[in-house]
Design a protein that fits this description.
Layout (H helix, E strand, L loop, with lengths): L3 H27 L12 H42 L4 H27 L2
Helix pairs in contact: 2-3
Length: about 120
């Protein structure tokens, strides 16, 4: 679907547009001011909680994007190495697993942020 230089540019633009729409929607939802009468006195705390949720989402999202970029390079190289010599499978999977650790670290930090809220 997205092949060639124009396709890759179009894919990046689509990803940026989707990220922007989701980010704006999340921001409007978090800062929309839908507080009930019982929560009227906690304005400063609401901002801290909203910032924590936003930070947790950004950590998870950016970790996933970084993992996708790292795994795409490492997996392509791993497939090439295994196709030349089957004994390289274990070594190449270590590098792919190390790249996937980025997403796990992002989730861990997100849980740490949300645990303090």
């Amino acid at each position: 679907m997205f092949k060639g230089k124009k396709g890759k540019r179009r894919l990046i633009l689509v990803q940026i547009a989707v990220f922007t729409v989701i980010w704006l929607g999340g921001t409007l939802f978090v800062f929309g001011g839908r507080a009930s009468a019982a929560e009227a006195g906690s304005g400063a705390n609401d901002l801290a909680v909203a910032a924590a949720f936003l930070a947790a989402g950004l950590v998870t999202g950016m970790g996933a994007i970084g993992t996708g970029i790292a795994v795409s390079s490492a997996a392509a190289a791993a497939i090439a190495a295994v196709s030349e010599n089957e004994q390289n499978f274990g070594k190449s999977m270590i590098f792919v697993a190390m790249a996937e650790g980025i997403a796990i670290y992002g989730l861990l930090i997100a849980f740490m942020i949300l645990g303090r809220v």
